[in-house]
Amino acid sequence: MYRKLKITEMGRMTVEQFRESEKLPLVVVLDSVRSLYNVGSVFRTGDAFRITGVVLCGITATPPNSEIHKTALGAEDSVAWRHFADTMEAVSWLKSEGYTLLAVEQCEGSTMLQDFHPIFSQKYAVVLGNEVKGVQQQVVDACDGCLEIPQFGTKHSMNVSVTAGIIIWHFVQFTL
Predict the structure, then answer these.
(1) I need a surface site. Which of 4, 19, 117, 139 has the fewest CB within 10 A?
(2) What residue spans define the domains of the chain?
């Protein structure tokens, strides 16, 4: 028999402890993501796996925002974030900070996710695109590579927050 744990039994860290804790060397960049619920979900998943941060670009909304909070459930307070009006500015900043940038997109020559093995002496930033248009081509061009999640159905795209979860989990597996 399984009994669900109460929140008080889980031993979760406080926001202050989270901020001081060691992080997965991964930043998620959102390139003009429209849905505030997707943004909140990325924050929540980022908190769950202790990523370094989230970079919000272009039209992507920023906290504080009630719709982001609805799915983030407070993770927007624990996960570090920064906003750039232009995604290319974010790319330049991340490169200057020593990050390897990877667009998550269907591209010629992209690396299938299962074939990508992160090296954790490196810091990575993954760029996820707009729900309709994906990652801007100029951003793809500026990245160090492209990751692609294999898909086998009739659709050729996935929800951006689901994509973030898959990508983050892939990185986490190499730290376990």
Answers:
(1) 4
(2) 16-173
Tell me the C-alpha distance between 38 and 159, whole Å: 8
Whether 100 contacts 125, CB under 8 Å: yes
How far apart CA 76 and CA 59 sit, in angstroms, is 17
Return the structure tokens found at 73: 């459930």
Select from 63, 12, 23 the least CA-distant residue to 40: 63
**Radius of gyration, alpha carbons of the chain:** 16
Kindly report the number of other CB atoms within 10 A of residue 102's CB atom. 21
pLDDT band at 7 (very low <50, low <70, confident <90, very high): confident
Using a cut of 0.85, tell me whether the model's pTM lies above it.
yes
Cα 7 to chain centroid distance, Å, stands at 25
